[in-house]
Amino acid sequence: MSLSAAQATGAEAVFDAMVRSMRVEAKDILSLELVRTDGVDWPVAAPGAHVDLQVPGVGVRQYSVLPSDATRSLWIGVQRDPGTRGGSRWVHDSLRPAQGVRVGAPRNHFALDTGSGPACLIGGGIGITPLLAMADALQRTQRAWELHYCVRSRDRAGFAALLQRYGERVQLHVDDEAGAPLDIEGLVHQAAPGTHFYCCGPAAMLRGFAGATAHLPPECCHVEHFAAPAVSAELPSGSFVVALARTGGEFVVSPVCSILDVLLDAGVDVPHSCRSGVCGSCETRVVAGTPDHRDVVLSPRERAEGKTLMVCCSRASGDRIVLDL
Ligand code: FES
Questions:
Q1: With a 6 A CB cut-off, is 275 part of the ligand 1 pocket?
Q2: SUPFAM superfamilies, per this entry (predicted)?
């Protein structure tokens, strides 16, 4: 559901906005400054948050929010993706300053822990963007932290203006020059007890991170995925019934369909984007029943609570689930 800027108030709000400026950060990476056309400040974006950008003819794409000194400006970073389905290509090739865009309110599935212990941030490529906002917040609260920024080559290292604020807390790792990927296992091994680890980057990096942190308490390990692990949507499952608490109606979800497919076929308007359990756009409240989670968005605690599920990929663990729709 899209609302006008005047109506927009909640997490699903969508704002009319304009590109005020664009900056080349590095090879194939742009940052965009977005301002609301109604002249009002953006809702607060917690560190790690992202926004939905509506791409004409393509759909909704998610981009992490960069730190900004002005609440009137919302900055995002966009890397041209060679495997793009059109989102980043449109931003790089067609979007220009003064052009209008529609942007969702910030949402966050990659939050900083609220404790006072040390934090180790590990970002690969454009995966640095949510970590920049975290670095900014950590610096303001004077917590112990370090950021490891991994790029394939030096010309792909962006956001120099932001990173130089933090001096030696930021370590740049250039794969081409080092001859090997970052030693995540070594970092974890050397870290102070109680450190929280955050990782956002390509699949190979996330696999390395998962292996290096497997022995740590899950609540200390935080990841954000660009794409779903290949196996997440392939688990076997039987049919079940999905019931809608607010609008009524019951539908059978067969083993070869997602809840989202069934709801869209029935004319139920459900926000969605990636359809693979990565972006969080389709998160829906559960009224009754137990979800069988298959996304990579929810934290272990959120999965155990079972209060929401991603209807694009997750299912019911029993024969019926009731959703707040
Ligand atoms: S549409 Fe992206 S998580 Fe469901």
A1: yes
A2: 2Fe-2S ferredoxin-like (SSF54292), Ferredoxin reductase-like, C-terminal NADP-linked domain (SSF52343), Riboflavin synthase domain-like (SSF63380)
